[in-house]
C-alpha cells in the first residue's frame, strides 16, 4: 500500500509501503490528508478499518481497483471513513481536485493535531487559571522533601496531582506507592501499611514488608486519609516524626525514607473538631496543603479536556463519529460535574460508543435539556420516566459505574437498581 504518491507537486508528501510503516509515521507527525492506495486488493479490510478508525482525524481519500468494490467490507469502510474515492486508472485532475478539497475542509475544521504526550511531560491537563496555579504550586513543592496534603472533591485529580509531585521530585526514580485508606478493612490496614513479623498473628508464617517500607526511596500516597483509624493515626504520626516504624508483632525499629503525600475529600479541620482526626497529625501532614479545583470551577478547560478524552478513547468509538457538537459543549458548560473529571471521562466514553451521528449530541452524554421543557413536551408520566433514567445515569457516571455505590447514592437496593437499569435499557 502507498499512503501518498511521490509525484504530487505542491504537497508535502510522505510515502510508505504498508500499514505498520504508516502507523509509525503518524505517531510522529500529523498529516491533514491521507491517500490510501490499494491497487491489487492486498490489504485486509479489517486492517484498513482499524487503521482508518484510529486515524480518524485525517481526511482520507481512497484509490482502488474498481473490481474490489464488490467487497461489502470495503464498501462499508469507504462509506464510513473516506472523504472521497477513485478507481484505477486515476484521473489525476480529479484526484488533485479531491485532495485540495479534503485539505480545504481540514483547514476549515481547524482540527487540532492529536494531543501527544511526550514521555515525562505533565499529566495534569488544562489551561484555566486555577490549573496553571496548581501546576506552579506543584512545581515548587515537588522539590521540597516535606509532607503534602491534597484536598479536593472525588474525581477531581488528587491522585494525579500526587503522581505529578512524585514525578517532579528528586525521588522520581524511586517507587510511588498508592493506597486508599477507605478501601482496606480497618483490621487489615495496620499490617498493610506497617508490615508484620513472622508469627505476629495466626497465619503470619513469614515476615512481610508493609507498604510504607516498600515506598522507601520514593513516595507513599495515602488516599482518603480522613478514614485512617485513630490508633493508626498515632503510628503514622510517629513515622513522620521519627522516620522509623515498627512492624506488627515486632520490637525492632525499622528506619524508612519515604515521602508522605496524603489526600482527602472530607474537610479535615472539621474532622479534627469532631475528634475523629488527631490535630497534631493534621498539622504534620499539612505542611504544604494544596487544593485541586473541582471541574465546575474551571469549565473553560472543557473543550480541551473533551478533545483529549476523545483522542484517548478513539479506538472504542463508533466508526462514523468525528467529534463533539457545539450543542454538546454548551450542555457540558451548563452541567455542574459533581463527579468531576472522572464523570466527564465516563460520560464521554459512553457517548463515544453509543452516538449514532457524526457528532456527539447532548443526549449522547445524557445531559438532558431543562426539566420544564421535558414536562411540556412529554407529559407527566414520561417526564417521571426521563427524570428517573437521568438520575440513574448521572449517579452511575458519578460513581464510575460502581453499582453498590450508585445504589447507595440513589437510596435504593442493588437489586432495585439492577431492575431499574433493565427497565431503562441502561447497560451495567
Ligand atoms: N487535569 C486532568 N487532566 C487529565 N486527566 C485528569 C485530570 N484530572 C484528573 N484526570 C483523570 O480523572 C480521573 C480521576 O482522577 P483522580 O486523580 O483519580 O481523582 P481523585 O483522586 O481526586 O478521585 C483519572 O482517570 C485521571 O487520570
Ligand atoms: Mg482518588
TrEMBL record:
Keyword Transcription regulation assigned to the entry: answer is: yes
Q: Provide a GO biological process annotation.
A: regulation of DNA-templated transcription
User: What domain of life does the UniProt record list for this protein's source?
Assistant: Bacteria
* Keywords, in A-Z order: ATP-binding, DNA-binding, Nucleotide-binding, Transcription, Transcription regulation
One Pfam family, short name: HTH_8
Q: Which residues form the Sigma-54 factor interaction domain?
A: 124-353
Gene3D superfamilies attached to this UniProt entry: 1.10.8.60, Homeodomain-like, P-loop containing nucleotide triphosphate hydrolases
GO MF terms held by the record: ATP binding; sequence-specific DNA binding
Keyword Aminoacyl-tRNA synthetase assigned to the entry: answer is: no
**Which InterPro entries does this chain map to?**
AAA+_ATPase (IPR003593), AAA_lid_NorR (IPR058031), Homeodomain-like_sf (IPR009057), HTH_Fis (IPR002197), P-loop_NTPase (IPR027417), Sigma_54_int (IPR002078), Sigma_54_int_dom_ATP-bd_2 (IPR025943), Sigma_54_int_dom_CS (IPR025944)
Q: Which PANTHER family match?
A: TRANSCRIPTIONAL REGULATOR-RELATED, TRANSCRIPTIONAL REGULATORY PROTEIN
Protein's name according to its UniProt entry: DNA-binding transcriptional response regulator, NtrC family, contains REC, AAA-type ATPase, and a Fis-type DNA-binding domains
Q: Which organism is it from?
A: Massilia yuzhufengensis
